[in-house]
């Protein structure tokens, strides 16, 4: 074999060996979203609960359990975890019961979703069908579903988040909404450092829950993720501010804005990179106070653990999104 042919053959071999690996990963990712959606649609068809609500509940539970476990639950088909005692019925003497007759007798929540004659708490079909059956008890319609969710979680914030996720899934007709963007255009002037946790003086001693991105007045502020605008308005610390909720359990907070983009209001569905406002220096006083510090965007990230919301350092995420945006602008 000539040198040329050998080189060609070797590169072809390397090409064949390397490309399927890349494709396999993205295909696996794509297929789990497809598989989940197929199960949501199937369960929606038999219970009458919209697939978007089921997907939102499932994502909410996935988010919460991800915080409480060290194992990677992202690849599990279903994020919902049912209570083992309620599953078989509180008075059921057999905690591992899988028999539809005895579980029904003890009024367990478990139901046979895939028709295989056993009720299995480890079967995604059985779990989602059982969960959806509880949700459907109050009757059809978003208001009834919200009441059923309230009875399930006893927490307004949880109901609000699930409703927001469902709105996003409905709008984009997918649950694959994981893209991000840097919060100011990367070709403009800006500067930021890691300052999360630094002490703050104004308005009592608080820690700095975010990263300050210094930029000129009027620099567009971009949404960092897909999400729903959960909050807008004045606050004496943050000035004119926006709170954006994404379905991966991040609440993105943008503070000290000069103003908001047109067509942005509470409940708006937002895409990453979309202009939501403009850099300013509002805050540290009564409504309309500006210019008490240099113009900058205060960007904070928060996560919900099912009971309360906590702040975490956005700096590493900002670095990642910035690098990606810079690569796209080349
Ligand atoms: Zn700040």
TrEMBL record:
GO molecular function, one term: metalloendopeptidase activity
Pfam families, A to Z: Peptidase_M23 (PF01551)
Signal sequence segment: 1-23
CDD domains linked: M23_peptidase
Keywords: Signal
Domain M23ase beta-sheet core, residue spans: 207-305
InterPro entries: Cell_wall_metabolism_enzyme, Dup_hybrid_motif, M23ase_b-sheet_dom
The protein's name in its UniProt record: Peptidoglycan DD-metalloendopeptidase family protein
Organism: Terrilactibacillus tamarindi
